[in-house]
Amino acid sequence: MRTVLTMRMTSVLMCVAFLVGSGMAMERVPDYRELKYPRLRDIQVPEVERVTLANGMQLFLLEDHELPLIYVSAMIRTGSIYEPADKVGLASLTGTVLRTGGTTSRTGDEIDEQLEQIAASVETGIGRSSGSAYMSVLKEDIDTGLPILADVLMNPAFRQDKIDLAKVAARTSIARRNDNPNAIASREYAKLIYGTGSVYARHTEYATLDSIARDDLVAFHRRFYHPNNVMLAVWGDFETKKMVARIEDAFRNWRKAQVDVPPVPEVKYEFRSTVNVVVKEDMSQSCIRLGHLGGMMNDPDYFGLMVMNEILGGSFTSRLFKNVRSRQGLAYSVSGVYGADFDHPGVFYASCQTKSQSTVHATEAIIEEIRRMTQEPVTDEELALAKDGFLNSFVFNFESRGEVVTRLMTYAYYGYPADFLQKTKENVEKVTKADVLRVAKAHLRPDTVQILVVGNPEGFDRPLSTFGDVKTIDVAIPQPAQGQ
Amino acid sequence: MRCSIVRRVGPAALLAMLFIAATMRGQDLAGFEKRLTEFTLDNGLKFLILERHEVPIVSFHTYADVGGVDTVTGITGMAHLFEHMAFKGTRTIGTKDYTAEAAAMAKMDELFDAIKKEKRKIGGPDPQKLKELQDQFDQEGQKAQECIVHDEYEEILTQQGAEGFNAYTSEDATQYIVSLPSNKLELWMMLEADRFAYPVLREFYKERDVVMEERRMMENSPMGRLYEEFQAIAFLAHPYGEGVIGHMSDLQTLTRGEAVAFFRKYYCPSNLTIAIVGDVDPAQVRRLADKYFAGLPSGPKPEPVETEEPPQRGERRVTVEDVAQPVVLIGYHQPNVNHPDSTVLQVISEIIGVGRTARLYKSLVKDKRIAVSANSGPMLNKYPALFMFMAVPATGHTTRECEDAIYAEIEKLKTEPVLPAELAKAKTRSRADVIRQLDSNSGLAAQLTFYEVVTGDWHNLFKQLDQIEQVTAADVQRVAAMYFTTKNRTVGAIETTSGEKPTTGAGI
Asked: Are residues B129 and B90 in the same domain?
């Protein structure tokens, strides 16, 4: 504790500061409103070279000569949405062991040594709706790195010891999945929105892991990993023509094949109001999430929703940030975004972390902000802030060449037009206050939200039943079968 | 995030910043020197400008040489709280009527002091009196609120296209960052100068509530709980033992007067360094720096922390009894980043604890399968800190098993010379890691300020290379033997007390 003397002294200092300030500030500090900005130099959008190889593999190439480095990023049409319900975790294991399990001609450990000696990396994985592979090498090592990447994609050996190792890691993350309250909130919220068994919400259990065998990995790879099912983005310090020849050579033994990739599963959602709690008695703070299903990026309302997101909860200047954090001091972390995905509806959720004693109050404050969004138009200033912010920062979409080329590949992967970014800009420019209100009314349902709180109800300001019947979600982890 | 707390521990990406190999050095140092302009204003404010013209954008990095380490018992958390306050505007930005606002804030400060005094009364506060004071405090708060133009400072930059607009407080530093389209250079110069010339700590008492929530987030994470306990026992005397976030009781009692005094002491121009990287003309930056920053009143560079950590007399150990799964941290006291042994420790870390072919990964994860991760990293700090090890046990295995396996690898470092191939690999990887980090404006700005302030010269970003190249197997052995002793060790572990707590609906 400071002494009284010190406190007095500092108050005196402060008063002096105020006196000095009020007289001088106006002359000394020019007004930012009077600044004239020079016109921003035109952005040179680098031209990406697109090539399709004879075996069907699609390449996106962009030279970047600033540093002596070369990168490859691949997308493979696959995903955990295609794994059977009793083998959840298969896609993820396949994606991991593809690299760690080595190839028919070298073990994973040998690959580790080879790569680390030249400070290179090759990594693979499989996510929800795509597989990925990544390579980074110093330019002079391209003829070591690229053949390893190709070998891993074409000839993985899925050695049993590395499957076992990956299972140790997977089991350990199951055991640890309730340690972090935010992780619980995001996992359980997805189940509320998509349904427990949905491919967009389900997760690995000991039982599903135990049912996965090496043959499953081999078959999963064989089903999806064919050149005509792969896109590669390549950027760095190379000459495009020579790089295409190198890639052709590295993948020369990979033949086109019939690949049957089913369409992405659809989402059925019925709007409903629910109140859910996960009890964690060790918590002094609640993790709150509430909302409902979101949308897709190919919805014509997407651009209006982007502007709405900025105003509602997507930034440091959003309403949620201002009112829940800055004005009321209720939370450090608060946000709210109507989520849109490329190929399936995302989730709309607002979230915050607040002390147990303000749980219900903060929840009400968040719902109120969502409701206000649907009831009255945003102000001219809010609209201008959101649109100008987006348009003025548009140039950052071209900050790195890697970003430019991987964005183009991602659009192609999901069947979006190559100029989708440019279209987004043009459409955001057109968004009006009426549009924001219209899309908010059409897409936000503040009166039918699902509420999830992870926390300790004994400390709550009021019972959660304020919002309706409360369902307690049991997050106890189903234990592995005997003998595991 | 705004004010998330960065600790310079561990992650390979951060450690790698320190390395660069000789082959890189020739071409790139020359290239850098050509593109880098530095100058210091008369008031002591230093600028580093690096030109990168490909895209019309620019990153700004203001490095204040003050962090958690400078906020002693009683005002712990102040460096970080001030960082939050630096977004609240100035005497002209964020207010409709500064005079009225200042008067209301001054009354709030007096009332806050009176409330504190009342609460401290022997025999307890008079509830009636306390309520009156609190009501008056709220009324004055309301008056101040009415003068405020909310969030104006943040909105100006956001509207003009800011990216990565944020700030961070660590043990050693407080860093303010933003990137803008390059035609907004003058706007940034004007606003940044204004906020460090005439900051107004408005909404102070509300922002403390926000910081308390930030503290609770840390407390509600198992790693946060462990690290706080670990830090506290690792340091007996040095303020690195206190977390940057501050103790809850200090946060509850910090005053705006204390924050103003803190600002006056630590935010004088001689204690600030600014890096600007991107599409700018250094001559124009110089003109604008003279125009906007030259008026910042100079002040003496604050004295460094003089408290030194005394040698440890024996191993220290803390066990956090927790519902979470086990984790173990091991720390050995080591010298600061400018000591020659720091370079050797960085090489040691590459060999033992970074990557898939590192010794810890091979032993604990691949071979014994007792851990799912096992890493090491030296803290690259201004004052002597710790060389850290961390292991996450695999299910069914214990922190003790992980500790023993780590100690076995440490013993090998002391008794057997590392292989030439291992040493070469560590050097190559370090070099490449640095090259990979030279491609972003904001990353470069961060590195330039770190090297300039903490090591005294930005050139060390490259000169480190020579030192790395010179590290020998004998150095590794000597340094491992010197620092990695039982007596110099602190161990912190989470031990699971009751497995998973039952999840019942009690109390709803």
From this structure: yes
Structural domain count, chain B: 2
* Closest CA–CA distance from residue B491 to any residue of chain A (Å): 21
- Write down the pLDDT at residue B20: 31
Domain-located, residue B501: no
Q: b/e map of A457-477 (b: 16 or more CB within 10 Å)?
A: bebbbeebeebeebebbebee
The domain in which residue B338 lies consists of 316-496
Domains and CATH numbers, chain A: 49-250 (3.30.830.10), 274-472 (3.30.830.10)
Residue B265 lies in a domain: yes
The pLDDT tens digits for A317-344 are: 899 998 888 888 898 889 999 999 999 9
Are A67 and A237 within 8 A, CB to CB? yes
Residue A3 has pLDDT above 70, yes or no: no
Task: Identify the CA nearest to B281 among candidates B183, B384, B403, B135.
Answer: B183
- Of B317, B324, B373, B364, nearest to B495 (Cα)? B324
- Residue B383 in tokens: 């004052």
Residues of A whose CB is below 8 A from B213:
285, 329-333, 353-355
pLDDT tens-place string over residues B184-223: 999 999 999 999 999 999 999 999 999 999 999 999 999 9
- By Cβ distance, the residue of A26, A316, A464 closest to B154 is A316
Q: Is the pTM of this model over 0.80?
A: yes
Residue type, B145: Q
**Does one domain contain both B237 and B330?**
no
Nearby residues of A27 by Cβ (< 8 Å), 6 or more positions away: none
CA dist., res. A389 & res. A310, Å (int): 9
B267 lies in the same domain as B381 = no
Residue A4 pLDDT class (50, 70, 90 cuts): very low
Section A176-195 average pLDDT: 96
Answer whether residue B285 is part of any domain: yes
In this prediction, residues B67-76 reach a mean pLDDT of 93
Choose among B240, B218, B215: nearest CA to B71: B240
Show residues of chain B in contact with A138, CB under 8 Å: 432, 435
Closest-CA residue in chain A for B166?
A316
Question: Would the pLDDT of A417 be above 80?
Answer: yes
Residue B96 domain-assigned (yes or no): yes
Place of tokens 């105020």: A18
> Is pLDDT at B5 greater than 80 in this prediction?
no
Residue A28: the pLDDT is 52
Nearest to A388 among B159, B213, B356 (CB): B159
Q: How many CB atoms lie within 10 A of CB A364?
A: 14
